[in-house]
Design a protein that fits this description.
- This protein is an alpha+beta fold.
- It has a single domain, classed as 2,3-Dihydroxybiphenyl 1,2-Dioxygenase, domain 1 (Roll).
- The protein has 5 helices and 16 strands.
- It has an 8-stranded mixed sheet.
Length: about 300
């Protein structure tokens, strides 16, 4: 069994427009844009990162905004709701705040937790979940320290059959914590706070069709490259087809497809988002990976529309 995974590192999704995506996370949810770069495999498309002050692993939502992308269809074989942790007693504040942006909310509860569920600009699914969480919030986005998002709480997966994925999560160090109807909760003991995965079993549902508003992959955190190599070997030895280690500038990454169809990544906590920008100015300038640096002029002039902050 793998013992080095700490919880979520980041969640990466697809969007249809950079500006509305940026506004939702920075002006509505009050998160910080910690990096403005490009998709390594499609450099004509932004890769935007939002999180706490420094982009702590377990706080970062990232997006590939493909201009005009068709909206995805939710279903099985995908990550569903991404949950954010907020302090106890703050859901009335968030209900009122979201209403000022004409965002409809749904009051729900699961596993004894009070939640607000809502959607983003492309139908992407989120929940705010009241927890006791002492992670430091980012308060530069207009939300006070008493109410601000603390980072991720959880991610959920919708699957036709949860058996093989449940075994994978257990192999990755997750423990089954509870069951609520057709949802099984897993968690990492002594994790990073973003350490919950909920698996919803929907045997009769249609498969998801990925597009704007869909989660592309979820990434799990390990401390460093040495730990990542140990995880890679353990997964490979178990029969998973794992990619070589890929340098993503702000972390190193490996990827593999789960039995339920969800793409998993294992990412390092090092080196972090301040490797090429001072912490005070994270996310302000367009940062290009070395292999695409020569494209700056054409990308800025032809493909990447300026984002108004």
């Amino acid at each position: 069994m793998i013992k080095d995974i700490q919880g979520l590192h980041h969640v990466t999704s697809l969007a249809s427009a950079a500006q509305s995506n940026n506004d939702f996370f920075t002006k509505v949810l009050g998160l910080r844009r910690v990096k403005k770069t490009v998709n390594f495999d499609a450099p004509h498309v932004y890769h935007l990162y939002y999180g706490d002050e420094v982009g702590t692993p377990g706080s970062v939502m990232t997006y590939f905004p493909f201009p005009g992308a068709k909206r995805g269809r939710h279903g099985t074989g995908e990550v569903g709701i991404t949950g954010y942790a907020v302090p106890k007693g703050t859901l009335p504040f968030w209900r009122e705040r979201l209403a000022t942006f004409d965002i409809a909310v749904k009051d729900t509860s699961a596993f004894g937790e009070t939640r607000l569920e809502f959607t983003g600009p492309d139908g992407d699914e989120f929940a705010l979940i009241e927890t006791e969480d002492d992670r430091a919030p980012w308060t530069g986005g207009g939300v006070g320290a008493d109410e601000a998002i603390r980072g991720f709480h959880s991610a959920s997966m919708r699957l036709k059959d949860d058996g093989a994925t449940a075994e994978l999560l257990k192999f990755m160090g997750y423990k089954e914590r509870a069951r609520d109807g057709n949802v099984t909760r897993f968690g990492v003991p002594d994790g990073n706070g973003a350490d919950v995965i909920d698996v919803e079993t929907l045997p009769g549902a249609k498969p998801a069709d990925q597009g704007a508003g869909s989660v592309h992959h979820i990434a799990f955190a390990v401390e460093n490259r040495a730990k990542q190599l140990e995880v890679r070997k353990a997964l490979s030895d178990t029969g998973y087809q794992v990619t070589p280690v890929i340098d993503r500038d702000y972390f190193w990454a490996i990827y593999f497809r789960t039995p339920g169809g969800v793409l998993f990544e294992v990412a390092t906590n090092e080196p972090g988002f301040d490797r090429d920008e001072d912490t005070a100015h994270l996310g302000e300038a367009l940062k290009l990976p070395r292999q695409h640096a020569h494209l700056r002029d054409v990308l800025e002039q032809k493909y990447l529309e300026p984002i108004r902050d």
